[in-house]
Design a protein that fits this description.
GO terms for molecular function: actin filament binding. This protein is of the alpha+beta class and 227 residues long.
Amino acid sequence: MKIINDTSANGQFVACEFNRDLDSHRSPLSNKYFPDLPDGQQISKRLRSIEIKANTAFNAYRHLYFEGGICSVYLWDIEDKIFGFGVFIKNEINTTLRGGQKIHGSIDCSDVVEVDESSSTASYTMTSSVLMNVNLDIGLSKPLTISGSTADRKVRNMPWKSDDDHIVNIGELVESNSSHFRDTIENIYVSKMKQIVDLIAKTDASANQAAVANELAALFAKRRGGA
């Protein structure tokens, strides 16, 4: 995933495989392709209406659970009474700790849902993943990399009567998955923390190891959507 500027809507959006046509990506903000692609694929009017509402709703979710980042929601037609619904959050990290250590990288979250609304109880098949790739520059010959990923798949049947119900139902699924992913990212972070602190101590004998560790912990707690 990467972030692209929508010059028409004066905003940014997440570019991924689910909004790509050839070498261009469709913005959920303006519904235009960047770079410009006059004959780019367009979704149905109904799905576009859901997409607009979903972007508003999930950006409120991003604001509550993440510090920064860009959230984009895309819908796409699959077949009669079945469509795709994807929520993508890219959280870029580029900061400097008080001790001068530089951190840069990203945490990417995606939830891709196949919605089957062929009955009054819709079936939601959701595949979720989180990818973390962060570099910490502590003065060594190359940055120390903290990376890891996790994925999950679940199927839920939930009642629906209107298009808004799909947004609410998928929102509940995404939120329920967040706790599991936060724990997984926490484990990745903890497994690397001792190594980071030890290396900081070796490269800077005056470094306050506890302070650096606490600052890193606070940073990742915010970036991964922690409380």
